[in-house]
Amino acid sequence: MANKLTGRDAGKILAWLYYIREEYSSVDSSIALRKKLKLNRSRTNNALNKLYNERLIDAIPPETPRSNWKDIRLTNPGFDILENKDNYKRHFGVELNLGIFKLKWGAEER
Questions:
Q1: Are the CB atoms for 4 and 84 separated by under 8 Å?
Q2: Which of 60, 76, 97, 110 could form a disulfide with 70 if both were Cys (CB 3.0 to 4.6 A apart)?
Q3: C-alpha distances in angstroms, 59 versus 43, 72, 106?
Q4: Do residues 31 and 68 lie in contact, with contact meaning Cβ atoms separated by under 8 Å?
């Protein structure tokens, strides 16, 4: 269950980074992600590790387990996965429709 949850969390983070890309080129730290997506530190770190190891994001990893990720941004492979619905579903196990992402976001945060 943890791997499936990590995949879903990673997909949610990647989609949120995509959604905000026109206003912000990156997210300053994982604290902002945790607050916006309502994930705890462990879930956020697991998801960011997955995305970072798969080169879907670029970031400055935490120096210690209690420190935070910094300067989190999408990479080209991250964009590619988000812009192909089949790849996204295969990779994260959930569907995403970026056209209605904004409208559905509040319901999915719960």
A1: no
A2: 60
A3: 17, 4, 26
A4: yes
Tell me if the pTM is above 0.85. Answer: no
Domains of the chain: 2-108 (1.10.10)
Name which residue leads in pLDDT, 38 or 21: 38
What are the angstrom distances between the C-alpha of 52 and each of 56, 104, 106, 109? 6, 26, 26, 22
Is the confidence at residue 54, as pLDDT, over 90? yes
pLDDT digits (tens, 9 = 90+) for 65-98: 788 999 999 999 999 998 888 888 888 887 776 6
- Strand segments, DSSP code E, in the chain are 27-29, 57-60, 70-74
At 9, list the tokens.
């969390």
Token pair listed for 87:
């790849």
Q: Which residues contact 110 (CB under 8 A, 6 or more apart)?
A: 38
Dihedral over Cα of 48, 4, 95, 80: its sign: positive
Identity at 22, one-letter amino acid code: E
